[in-house]
Write a structure and sequence with these properties.
The structure holds 2 protein chains of 2 kinds. By secondary structure, chain A is of the alpha/beta class. Chain A folds into 2 domains: about 130 residues, Rossmann fold; about 100 residues, Arc Repressor Mutant, subunit A, CATH 1.10.10.10. In chain A, about 45% of the residues lie in helices and about 20% in strands. The longest helix of chain A is centred in the middle third of the chain and has 24 residues. The radius of gyration of chain A is 22 Å and the shape is elongated. In chain B, strand 6 and strand 7 form a beta hairpin. In chain B, helix 2 packs antiparallel against helix 3, helix 11 runs antiparallel to helix 16 and helix 12 crosses helix 15. The chains are: A alpha/beta, B alpha+beta. Chains A and B meet through helix 1, strand 12 and helix 7 of A and helix 7, helix 8, helix 9 and strand 9 of B.
Chain lengths: ~240, ~525
Amino acid sequence: MKLYDCKILLVDDNRELLAMTKDILNRNGYDLVVTAMSCREAEEKFAEESPQLVILDIMLPDGDGFTLFRSLRERSRVPILFLSARDEDNDRLFGLGLGADDYVTKPFLPQELALRVNAILKRSYFSGQDLEAGETLVLGARTVSLQNATVEWEGESVSLTAKELLLLQKLYHNRGNIVTFDALCQAAWNDKYYGYENALMVHIRHLREKLEEDPSHPKYLLTARGLGYRLAAEKAGGR
Amino acid sequence: MRGLWKISRRYMFTAVLATLFVIGVNFAVLLYWGYQAVGEDGSVSTNFGRRKMNAAAEEISLENGTYRMSPEGYRILGEGPFVWAMLIDGEGDVVWSHQLPEEIPLHYELADIAVMSRWYLKDYPVGVWKNSLGLMVYGYEKDSIARFNLISDMRMIDSLPGCLKGMLLLNGLLFLGLVLFLAWRFYRSLKPVEQGIVMLSAGERVELAERGSVKELARRLNQTSAALRQKDEKLKRRDDARTDWIAGVSHDIRTPLALITGYSDELMHDQRLSGEARWKAEAIRQQGLVLKELVENLNLASRLEYHSQPLRKTVFSPAEPLRECVAEYYNRGLRENYEICISIREEAEQRMICADRALLLRLFRNLIGNSIRHNPEGCRIRVSLRGAGDRVRYGFADSGPGIPGEIVEVLMGEAECGEETGAQEMAGQASGREEEAGAQAGAGQAAGREEEAGAQEVAGQAAECGEARSGTGAQPHIMGLRIACQIASAHGGALRFVRREGGGFDMEVELPVS
């Protein structure tokens, strides 16, 4: 199964919003979108269509989304995203606490919804495949295998230490974005930044020595002064 | 215990004062009475007219074997207080008499004289006076004078001064004991009332036992407590209703807003449309997002205002959310004409704070977002963090003109009206700081800032505090700052406005460390 073959069940009591959300998903490549406007209809469609993702509103005419969520979860581990007009933290935490995969509040930007749907589906159905294929990171002439923790270039090869790999993974998963010192220390040492300032600097220097052609003028592993580090975004994006 | 001592002291003071007063009054009355009792001639009327007895006795004489009283003597006798008089000679015979009642004998034995001089004669109180002729006996009216015969042991009289001292001491001690006992009883009966008042002022429920001397007081306190609780509940119900109402409205706005932003976003990316149409769609989308932020802010502000926003406090480094917030701005694509510089002092890096992380992020976003929004031509934002005693201080300054004084006035005006007056502090005190003064390098870019006018409008509405709250709701910019104020004070901290040398204000947030 491919990512865009996933079937999505969309439950919302507002006809216009339902149409728009379906349209957004269609335009982002998800052709198989089923809609329902009530809990009862959602239960029926869920049983008939066996969707790979459910997008749920919380306020429905014949019940609330939380109850429907529990009912669906009893039958299946299908990922569920709440799309709600209620932004109360309590609702958000309650929804996520129930085990929802994400919680998006209205109004939302189409791109934001599409990205979140992508992320949930990838995480739920395709994370294993990625790992099997082996995540590789190409930085100029160098190729990093995150699976083997190696960097290769021009026939040479060097290994990454466990901490270097953890740091690089964190940066890779947020590629193009600044990752704060705090987030990096959390990833590598599961601790707060204070006390690891020098250790982090040393590990980044070692990483640069392995990744960069000119470590003192890095092109890929960039410093965000006072904030953290950033792995330069890919020049040409895929899809 | 301090209360007991105070009450005892007051009791003692009052008792001593009352005693002295009563003694004084008695003494004065006695004096007055004594004065009244003294006759014009200085003789005391009740002192059996001793002077008169003497004077009358001197006026009697023996002439040619006959006892005679001079007219002067009769005059003295006539003035009283005697009703009769007689002279007894050495033989015991009455040799002269004046108005002598019949029942009085005319001869007396020695024993009769002894008894009469000490007690009564035929129920007449009598006074005796010896002169050269014999014994003058003066009779007073029956039942007019009481006679006592005091006999005392000399030893007892000798020991009287000592006894008196002992008695005084004993009385003093008894007095002190009584005062302390009464004070303690009073204190004990007042204790629950005092506790009740303390509880009342702390807003707790008061239910005192209605008995004893303070029964009425306790009843009143219970009534007051019940009335206050009723009022509190009413207010809370009203606050809850308001919060619910705002939450409801913001909920209902969200779905149409989702359609507005969603479709305008779609139109904005529709290549078939003309550039102008797409630009218009982008404007609609942008305003939809502004509305979204406004709705969120309105909701959060009302929940913070009416304390229905629970604080989910955790302990973390104060620098961490600040870095995250700044990184988030860059990651979301900060326009090139903006720059956010961050500086965190080591002492602040070491500390920990206990706060609601999500709310703190919201606070930082509001303050940085405020600088970005108000400097559309771009600016340099300086974000700092340092330790200050048992607090950490976040600084937010930009190279733009800073926050206008009018907005600061409005916010400060609200703070003065609000319940958390103590939390917000006027920035005037902090003015003239060199470090902040440096941040105004790019001041003077104020051209084209429509919010200045808006701020004045808001300032106008702030004339009455109550109106300022509802009136400023239309200002998303000021709402962000107000929420920042509320978040800071909800954490026991404060948002301060620091005046720059050239006018305008920077912001500072102080939070207690955990």
